[in-house]
Amino acid sequence: MGDQDDHDGGLGCCGFVLMGLSIFIIIIFFPFSLCFSIKVVQEYERAVIFRLGRVLSGGAKGPGLFFVFPCVDEFKKVDMRTVAFDVPPQEILTKDSVTVSVDAVVYARVFDATLSVCNVEDAFKSTKLLAATTLRNILGTKIMSELLTDRDVISESMQTMLDEATDPWGIKVERVEMKDVRLPVQLQRAMAAEAESSREARAKVVAAEGEQKAARALKEAADVITESPAAMQLRYLQTLNGIAAERNSTIIFPLPIDMLQSLIKR
């Protein structure tokens, strides 16, 4: 049989003999042979049929009902739904020499059933292993702070790389998400101490700014009181009024301030 026959899926002489034998078996054991010949493919499935080792023309079949020849045809069902699988935690050394443990989740689906069966043994298992390797390669080029702040960017980069690599396998990687980034305990303590020190420093700065504003306000008030003697007397009376309102007691105070000032001058 020539190359053209191989490309067209020609059966050759032996193939036609086997096909005739298969039809003969179906006729002899009819109707029991229908249980082995009629197959049903669900809406979310596709069937890849091999006839004497060759994929039938037209690609995957389904959904619906189709007929296979016993002893000649072999078929494999492929689930076309999106599958989510976890990438095991990976111990990664970042660019700034920090060891972290990172795990992720990958969402993928089969877009070509024939490629997923013919080009790779286990499409989803291979995608899972490739995702673990890609995760280590990408995170090894990042510093620790980027792992904590740029998760979306890292996830998009990983999704793009995986999608390109799994395209020959008939797999479409729809989404990649980093689940957790676990830091060493000592590093967590150091980061917590650094954050607490930073908060204390900001609190001291705010308190100092408040004291500065209060001192400036007191200075302005003192300047106003110095310029007007009547303002001093009013402030004196307001202080007495406040003391009388807070405490229920008798207060004895000397002569008015203006009389005391005149006596002091004399």
TrEMBL record:
Keywords: Membrane, Transmembrane, Transmembrane helix. Residues 36-195 form the Band domain. Pfam families: Band_7 (PF01145). SMART domains: PHB. CDD domains: SPFH_stomatin (cd03403). The chain crosses the membrane at residues 16-41. It comes from the Eukaryota. The keyword rRNA processing does not apply. It is found in: Membrane. Belongs to the band 7/mec-2 family. This is Band 7 domain-containing protein. It comes from Tegillarca granosa (Malaysian cockle).
